Amino acid sequence: MEQPVITQYMKKTVLLVEQNAWHEYIALQEIHEYVYSLKNEHDDRRWIYKTPIEWQEMFPFWSMEMIESVLLNLVRMGFLEVRHGRTGTNSKCFRIHYAKC
After folding, report:
1. Which residue range is the domain that position 59 belongs to?
2. Residue 31's domain is classified under what CATH number?
3. How many domains does the chain have?
4. Are 75 and 81 in contact (CB under 8 A)?
5. What CA–CA distance (Å, rounded) separates 101 from 85?
6. Are residues 59 and 27 in contact, defined by beta-carbon separation less than 8 angstroms?
7. Residue 80 to residue 95: CA distance in whole angstroms
8. Residue 101 located in a structural domain
9. Residue 23 placed within a domain
10. Distance (Å, rounded) from C-alpha 11 to C-alpha 90?
11. Which of 17, 45, 66, 67 is deepest in the core (most CB within 10 A)?
12. Model pTM?
């Protein structure tokens, strides 16, 4: 049942490429693959929890400022939903908002 969502997601993210949002496209693809590989479900949704250092490990080819900018852009575009992560850490939780992709 997850396959149609994945296929639909892959088709709709082409809009990011058409908008020349290459960094956002790359980040969204990586987040999508990571979330589905771990299957972290909370409230029947799949979330990714990372601290800034963990994001840097996931995207070593970008600076921390670039990562923050890309994630913020994806939130503003409606592709990602964000909330605060683990208590006592600087982590944030993100999930892909597939209905808006």
Report:
1. 2-96
2. 1.10.10
3. 1
4. yes
5. 23
6. yes
7. 6
8. no
9. yes
10. 33
11. 67
12. 0.77
Comparing C-alpha atoms, which of 29, 50, 54, 52 is closest to residue 40? 50
The string of pLDDT tens digits covering residues 30-74 is 998 888 777 655 556 778 888 889 999 999 999 999 999 999 999
Output the CA torsion sign for 49, 55, 59, 65: positive
Q: How is residue 2 written in tokens?
A: 């997850």
For 63-89, give one letter per residue: b (16+ CB within 10 A) or e: eeeebeebbebbeebebbeeeebeeee
Distance CA 12, CA 50 (A): 25
Is residue 87 a part of any domain in this protein? Answer: yes
Query: What percent of the chain shows pLDDT beyond 90?
Result: 25
Please write down the HEC assignment for all residues of the chain. Answer: CHHHHHHHHHHHCHHHHHCCCHHHHHHHHHHHHHHHHHCCEECCEECEEECHHHHHHHCCCCCHHHHHHHHHHHHHHCCEEEEECCCCCCCEEEEECCCCC
